[in-house]
Design brief:
This protein is mainly beta. It contains 10 helices and 43 strands. The chain is about 15% helix and about 40% strand. The longest helix has 18 residues.
Length: about 700
């Protein structure tokens, strides 16, 4: 929970009505009605700090008691208030129980009542506790004269058509009656913007990109520390698989540590599903003319980047490593970085012409992500953590630089192949030469240098380049001798070095011959006994003591380490890894079939096509970000989805499911042709389209 040291708040509280100045809104505390014809519950629970004055008015009458207690007359609540100036006033109500509250009406004085249905969309949604949420609703407008008025809320008793009654459920925290535009901000009246010590520190925090360059010829700053964050709700969610196009118009910036899960770091933002992070970056004048890009090791769900108000890029995939070039927007001096995040709740299923389908998921408790049969469109079941989850970096590179370097050792031919992208951030075409040399991590002497390649790249564009050459006597990576190399790619233009980049790798080759896995041409036999330990060092000691030969690595972290850091440890420690993707069918977490007739008609399929499409893109992006780790033996692209979610439940649709699985496996092998793929539990498909048969729970004799 955030520290609540308030630096400046000016409020006048009188008889439950807060008035900031003569022309600004009237603020009414709902738990202080002028009259009410029942005894309400006046209290707060869960996070009472989220409530104005720490409590709200709550009325709940079970259906079997409505007839005796209220009948059709229902509940009537009134509030007296005064306005100073004539004008059109909007009435905002901070309500509870999104979508399940009872219908009610409101009226001021003798004006006609206005009906409010539980389906009307709210904003600034917050969770008091699971299934108890509150949010602001603009209920409409009324033209008022100066002087005294009465606001009346009426919740009628409603017969259910079966001789009984519907339950009465209503809760309200406060009202805001205002002439000016109102931009809700939790429990705070307009014009009140409390700031904590952390908020002020985040506002002044500046990340300094160093002038001094590293041995790789680049400059880098890790963006770990206090950032600012603001919610940016949309009443009707737009397309999920697209950049956030509008910057926050009326932000309330506060502090959040980066990296971390915003759901745990800022529980008040649990139901803030579209957010912007902001921080300042200082670029020394001496780095003008260079390229700049951001590296994000892991975000969720998707990411939009603006620098100095200029859109720079978008990544649609959760839990993957990616980078975004920001060169065209950066300049020497202070730069403002904005990172837009749609969180895990945007991972639920959508309908193109029905925004409310997704919006109706926005008040689901976080525990829903751990339950079965979820209508998810992204592979995030059991993983609701959201935001900037691992420390990002800002990198300064040359005006032409290499990215996405993929190192492919070929032990069988004693050679080395490299694929990379050359990016030109300048405004003119550039031509030059790229060279690649491999160094031992402890050596300054190149072990091998590949034949150089010439390139030409248009302005603000990129080209893909492949290099290869022989390598007579490399030191092989193996579990017993996990030797690591660094591949240095160098860009020369007019014989001058403009960029150097280092990529860590191990020289080894995984292959399959018959029924044998081969490591560097020799049979490899893997076995693992799952166990836990108090820390990574203790785990490694137990792993070696038990003579285990491989490890199944899944999920978004391992023993508090990000996947990057965990795989680095496995690389240098000689731990062979079966790397599993995010699609996890355990507990039948996903609704694998499509039971929405609208989406069935759009996709012409009975399976969850959107999930299959987003999963294929996500797992290939994950592989692209991790494929240089020598410890990874095989990509297990899913866990028990084909087995539990599909085979056990939807046998009549297996041809379509297996076609989707095969398509994804082929996409992964295209992204990384140096390793095989498998599924965990679903075999190799009926047509044996996968190179490895990954069965679970085999009974009886097998070979």
């Amino acid at each position: 929970m955030r520290i609540t040291t308030i630096l400046a708040i000016t409020l006048l509280i009188t008889f439950g009505v807060r008035t900031i100045e003569a022309q600004t809104p009237v603020w009414i505390e709902s738990e202080r009605p002028t009259s009410i014809n029942t005894t309400p519950d006046i209290s707060g629970w869960g996070f009472p700090d989220y409530l104005s004055n720490g409590s709200w008015l709550h009325v709940s009458i079970p259906a079997n008691k409505v007839g005796a207690q209220t009948g059709s007359a229902g509940i009537t609540i009134s509030y007296k208030f005064t306005v100073v100036k004539a004008g059109t006033y909007h009435l905002w109500n901070r309500l509870g129980y999104e979508r399940v509250r009872s219908p009610f009406t409101w009226q001021i004085d003798d004006f006609s009542p206005v009906e409010i249905s539980p389906e009307m969309q709210t904003t600034d949604l917050m969770e008091l506790q699971p299934w108890n949420e509150l949010a602001w609703l603009n209920m409409g407008a009324s033209t008022l004269s100066p002087g005294a008025h009465v606001l009346t809320i009426h919740i009628p008793g409603r017969p259910n058509g079966k001789g009984g009654w519907h339950k009465i459920l209503y809760a309200s925290d406060c009202f805001c009656i205002c002439r000016r535009e109102f931009h809700p901000h939790g429990k705070f009246p307009p014009g009140v913007w409390p700031q904590t010590v952390e908020d002020v520190a985040a506002h002044h925090n500046v990340f300094q990109l160093p002038v001094a360059q590293t041995h790789s010829g680049r400059s880098r700053v890790r963006l770990k520390g206090l950032w600012q964050i603001t919610r940016s709700d949309e009443a009707e969610p737009s397309t999920v698989d697209a950049p956030i196009t509008s910057l926050p118009r009326h932000p309330y910036w506060s502090a959040i540590p980066v990296p971390g899960d915003k759901n745990t770091l800022r529980p008040d933002l649990l139901f803030a599903h579209r957010l912007w992070y902001r921080t300042l970056l200082n670029v020394p004048a001496g780095l003008a003319g260079n390229s700049f890009y951001l590296v994000f090791p892991q975000n969720n769900l998707n990411t939009t980047v603006f620098v100095n108000g200029t859109y720079c890029g978008f990544n649609p995939n959760p839990f993957v490593r990616f980078h975004i070039d920001v060169s065209r927007a950066m300049h020497p001096g202070l730069n403002t970085l904005l990172v837009g995040i749609r969180d895990a709740w945007y991972g639920f299923e959508t309908e193109p012409n029905n925004p409310s389908k997704l919006r109706d998921s926005f008040n689901l408790p976080i525990g829903f992500f751990h339950q079965g049969f979820q209508h998810l469109a992204y592979p995030i079941w059991n993983n609701p953590q959201s935001g900037i989850l691992a420390t990002p970096s800002l990198v300064c590179a040359g005006k032409v630089y290499t990215s996405n370097v993929f190192v492919m050792p070929l032990v069988s031919t004693k050679s080395l192949a490299v694929k990379t992208t050359i990016r030109n951030s300048s405004a003119i075409s550039e031509s030059g030469t790229i060279t690649c040399s491999a160094f031992g991590t402890e050596s300054r002497l190149a072990a091998v240098t590949l034949p150089s390649q010439k390139f030409s790249v248009p302005p603000h564009s990129s080209v893909n380049v492949a290099l290869s050459g022989s390598w007579a006597n490399p030191r092989l990576w193996s579990p017993q001798h996990p030797f690591m190399y660094s591949l240095q790619t160098t860009i020369l233009i007019n014989h001058h070095v403009v960029d150097r980049n280092n990529t860590i790798f191990g020289y080894r080759q995984w292959s399959i011959v018959g029924t044998n896995f081969l490591l560097n041409g020799e049979p490899f036999h893997g076995w693992q006994d799952n166990f836990s330990a108090r820390n990574p060092a203790a785990w490694l000691a137990a792993y070696k003591m038990q003579h285990e030969t491989m490890f199944r690595f899944w999920g978004t972290s391992w023993m508090g380490m990000t996947p990057d850091h965990a795989l680095n440890l496995f690389d240098k420690s000689g731990v062979v890894v079966r790397r599993q993707g995010m699609l996890d069918g355990e507990a039948i977490g996903y609704m694998a079939i499509e039971d929405d007739p609208v989406l069935q008609k759009l996709t012409h399929s009975q399976i969850n096509v959107e999930l299959m499409r987003n999963w294929m893109r996500q797992v290939t992006a994950e592989v692209r970000g991790e494929r240089n780790h020598p410890s990874v033996m095989i990509w297990s692209i899913e866990n028990e989805f084909l087995y539990i979610n599909c085979i056990n439940l939807y046998g009549n649709l297996m041809n379509e499911f297996e076609a989707a699985i095969t398509k994804t496996a082929q996409a992964v092998m295209h992204t990384d042709p140096t390793r095989p793929v498998m599924v965990d539990g679903g075999g190799a498909c009926k047509q044996q389209t996968l190179p490895v048969c990954g069965n679970h729970y085999i009974d009886g004799k097998w070979t």
